[in-house]
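User: Second chain of the day. Same drill as before.
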Amino acid sequence: MTKNMIVVGAIAGAFGVHGDVRIKSFCAVPEDIATYGTLMSEDGTRSFDITLTRSIKNGFSARIEGIETKEEADALRGVTLHASRDALPSLPDDEFYHADLIGLEVCDTGGTVLGKVKDVLNHGAGDLLEVDGPALKASVLMPFTHTHVPTVDLTAGRLIVDPPEGLFE
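Assistant: Same format as last time:
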């Protein structure tokens, strides 16, 4: 998938016996997942036109065009849904899509390269940058806050970080 496609949700399996699916939305406004047009699978080989039918615990019940049975819906469990970047809203200057951060070089405030952003994770308490580099024994998880990441320069392809003491030792 290219950086022109952004993950907006995932299919969590069947909901009921008539082909409805459970949708988990990763959007700031969860209902917006249905407003971004045709969604694609991660590899770009499948497209999904979804219609939300109701809100349920941890997501939505939805109909996907062409899915008629529980078995077809269950077969989609785990499929991530991607929207075209052009369909998504523009972000304020201090907000970023996770896809924009992955691959950026990570430098400390003195200019020393610490590694690259391998992934952006969120386990409920805020975003964490997974930083990987040749000098690191293992990936490092760093809070993605303005305090610890004062500068995000997408044009230069790097982050300037002020990590908590001892994090990169």
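DSSP finds two helices and 13 strands in the chain.

User: Great, on to the next one.
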